[in-house]
Specification:
heterotetramer; A: alpha/beta; Glutaconate Coenzyme A-transferase; 10-stranded mixed β-sheet; two-stranded antiparallel ribbon; 8 helices; about 30% helix; globular; B: alpha/beta; 2 domains; 10 helices; 15 strands
């Protein structure tokens, strides 16, 4: 079996969560790597949409921004950003949205706005961008994030984007009818929401990771499912495709 | 009121006044960097800057002290990290305090759409369960008069000036955008005045597809020929995004002194002609 | 849920049910006449028909007794005169009573836009000082929460089925529209199901411009190859509008018997293949 | 001097009202003839916009519908109908709109909806189409209509589109800031609104027409300006261009 690192484990696991008929709103960074890995392995027909307006894009290298020329050149169609947010995202055409965060709580609410007080921030983060409406308009949300006590917190400093709110039926109380964060994929494990209360429960642990590792890297009290699976390891083929993709990407971005 | 062909200097001097609300748009693609430099060179002050992704272009304007307020929805250097000048202004009021009005992308896109459509506000399904409405009084909610559904509303964006970059103008001043077209057309239609910098001026648009993304000359104020004017952003069909420079910006902007040095060297002692150089370098590399 | 290639018969049988709300769009250009005939042939009943300009296509459906309600904004034969079957239904309830919901073009265009955008209603500057709000309860007014300006609101159009005609599909079922594109894309995106009849099926869309007006196969239900399927409307790049037939329609439709004769001869005893004939005639004339 | 008929007089007079820098929303029929005549004579740079989405169109023959292929083929750009009504018309980009009517009152309010009661009509007319918003969103409106007692009435059966409402400042009371119907061009004369009360006043009479002709063809009490001009006759060139345009149009429409 090929050696892999925890980022690769997370990326491959995220990629495997995607289906061939998904229409996926892709963010930059890990989501982009996972979505394109899925496209280059088990989901060749997956539709990747970037918020810059490119629909059905098939980039050969990963974009640095969400609007690199490669995305447009390989897309089926490129629409104005107004149309992207109005007809495609708000119009309910996207099945899966990928989101990451600076801070996350156990109900999948995320913060990408500020650490500290909004008006007097300790750290000013980039802000919500597309996330507040991606979080509520996509059929379901996959959260992808490396675990740490600083990131996985009991209470986030600012609710940039809604997950399950205060849990239970709280999400629906905002008039939101989409499923919400159905899966949280980290470098250590997979968590899924409790069927009623909606807090995250560990349902699968990556090979070589202990329960204590997860507990040590989580700021809320971790709950494990009755039956916890072991996450399947990346295949040699997946790793090869992923590494080739990153190699092509690095060459392209440095070469300019 | 047909578009005038102008130099970049004259276009900025004529159209942009201290205190104006200015929207410089381009979603990763076609960002009007040369025009941004000219605004810095002309030391415009107290601008309210509007842009979905402030990006390097507003990092420069904010660091140079042109802005009193920023309206935005995502303030990072895509794929790289922070906008250090933006953060220094928000966190430390350097070089001056910066008021911010923060939205989501959906809100900004809808607000541009509403501005182009002559509406006072945009109504959309947004901000549900999100906290920005607590800190931004320009986010309100209304009820659908038919279903009672709660919908978000934000004021339309109606800038004094829109500044965008496009691939082509014809000799009449009609404008053609291709590729990732962002919200540029909306920004121009929403603004009182507009400056369009272009890669190329062509005799006519006879070969352009029926449904291309265009602006007629009577919907535009000033057209300026600035080849390479989007660098380090890109112009589809002309040159690629200079991703290496976006990464290099992180170091340049991290420190106030290195930023000021960069500003002196490349902006105050530069001009629109400089934007042709990286373009030529890229071409010669491609040919090599 | 990717688009299925089907025969016209199967597409209408599968997607259109009695009592459905159906939007058949095409603004003068690309009107799906062949699909209209198939709906008549299959004797669909109690349809709510939505269309900005009901035109000859709905004159036929209404005269054939398919419709219980019409939602529209301009009900004439452009440049010719009345839609006699529409008038006979409204004025004399023949062949059955027809309920109408009447809007302006701006309202309908905004309502399609809102439908595509997943909104429950469209908000626009409309109907100011006009009398339609008195007779149409689906026109309401709201206040801009920022300026207090009074704005019109109408419910979004969310049809059960949208039926449109396009120039091309590729083998995956992606769709390309060119020329006067009307509200077709919006109608399809707003609908639960959609049928797209096309002039041509091509291997791929590699030569199509970046910003063409398109629909991906996963946003479409059924794709049907019907060359000439827009006649007597037209398909830019394929055949011209048969203006002479639009003029001739005035006489055909003026009288119930002549309309019924026409229906028997050209619809009940016809089929989608018939739409290729005028197309070939036009070509041979052009070549002569 | 060349002979001309009253329709030609009306068309030429309407064409002359247009300026070279106008952006004009064109309806089918007479407005289309007048706008294209202007373009082919004194206003070569005029922008003609048809509600089908064609911007800056220069048709060689007059379209039968507002969406003939010729309009798109000769246009600078063709946009979706949604965009036409939202960005261009409602967005305030159109300087002049041309409207006709079945019924018109002295304040320039027009009816193209029904004769008789709305729910029980004597004659069902085509309806408003673009007119209700053209009437309020264009910089100004030119009304063009053949005079008759049936058409020029004291009270219209249905207010499809707003003119000056009940007169005076009534138009502004609806939140409308555009100028309204600044000119009414008929086959007999030109009328313009009273500066305060806004009812139409005859300001120019076509050659060979008497005041009594106008009074006999108007259902409201006709008012004449203190100084009434004589409308200049069509030039030989204008008539030639107009007749050539109609001849080309007829040949094209019959030939199919």
């Amino acid at each position: 079996m090929t050696d892999y690192n925890s980022t690769e484990m997370m990326t491959v696991t995220a990629a495997r969560a995607l289906k061939n008929d998904d229409v996926c709103f892709v963010g930059i960074g890990m989501p982009s790597a996972a979505c394109n890995l899925a496209r280059l392995t088990h989901a060749p027909d997956i539709t990747l949409i970037y918020e810059s307006g490119t629909i059905g894009t098939k980039p050969d290298v990963l974009p640095l921004s969400i609007g690199d020329g490669e995305l447009c050149e390989t897309a089926m169609n490129t629409v104005p950003v107004t149309e992207m947010f109005r007809y495609w995202l708000q119009g309910g055409k996207i099945s899966v949205g990928f989101l990451g965060a600076a801070q996350l709580d156990k109900f999948g609410n995320i913060n990408t706005t500020v650490i500290g007080d909004y008006d007097n921030p300790k750290v000013r983060l980039p802000g919500g961008g597309g996330a507040p409406e991606i979080a509520t308009s996509c059929g379901e949300i996959f959260l992808v994030m490396k675990q740490s006590k600083r990131g996985f917190v009991e209470k986030i400093d600012f609710v940039t984007s809604l997950g399950y709110g205060k849990g239970g039926d709280d999400r629906a109380s905002y008039g939101v009818t989409t499923k919400g964060p159905s899966r949280l994929i980290t470098d250590l494990c997979i968590m899924e929401p409790h069927p009623a209360d909606r807090h995250f429960i560990v349902t699968s642990i990556h090979p070589g990771v202990s329960r204590d590792d997860i507990i040590a890297a989580t700021g809320w009290q971790v709950e494990f499912a009755d039956k916890v699976a072991e996450t399947p390891v990346p295949s040699a083929h997946e790793l090869q495709v992923l590494r080739d993709l990153h190699a092509r990407t690095n060459a392209a971005h440095e070469g300019q | 009121m047909v578009a005038q062909f102008m130099s970049l200097k004259d276009a900025i001097a004529t159209c942009v006044q201290d205190g104006d609300t200015v929207a410089m748009e381009g979603f990763t693609h076609l960002i009007p960097h040369a025009a941004g430099h000219e605004i810095i060179r002309q030391k415009k002050r107290d601008l309210t800057l509007i842009r979905m992704t402030p990006d390097m272009i507003y990092d420069q304007l904010i660091g140079a002290g042109c802005a009193k307020k920023l309206v935005f929805s995502w303030g990072g250097n895509p794929g790289v990290g922070s906008l250090h000048r933006l953060r220094d202004a928000i966190e430390n009021s350097w070089p001056r305090a910066l008021e911010i009005e923060e939205h989501s992308h959906a809100a900004m896109a809808n607000a541009y759409d509403a501005g182009a459509a002559g509406l006072p506000c945009a109504v959309f399904k947004g901000y549900r369960g999100a906290e920005l409405p607590r800190v931004n009084p320009n986010i309100k909610f209304i009820e659908c008069p038919f279903t009672g559904e709660r919908l978000a509303a934000v004021p339309a964006i109606r800038p004094d000036v829109a500044v965008v970059h496009a691939q082509k103008a014809n000799r009449k001043g009609d404008i053609l955008f291709e590729g990732i077209v962002g919200v540029q057309k909306e920004a121009v239609l929403a603004a009182r005045k507009s400056i369009i910098t272009v890669e190329e001026i062509v005799d006519d648009f006879n070969d352009v597809p029926f449904n291309a993304v265009m602006l007629p000359n009577w919907a535009v104020t000033a057209v300026v020929h600035v080849p390479g004017g989007a660098h380090p952003s890109y112009a589809q069909g002309y040159y690629k995004r200079d991703n290496a420079f976006y990464k290099a910006w992180d170091n340049i902007a991290k420190d106030r002194d290195s930023f000021n040095n960069w500003l002196d060297q490349h902006v105050f002692n530069g001009g629109p002609k400089d934007f042709e150089a990286p373009l030529k370098a890229q071409h010669s590399k491609a040919e090599a």
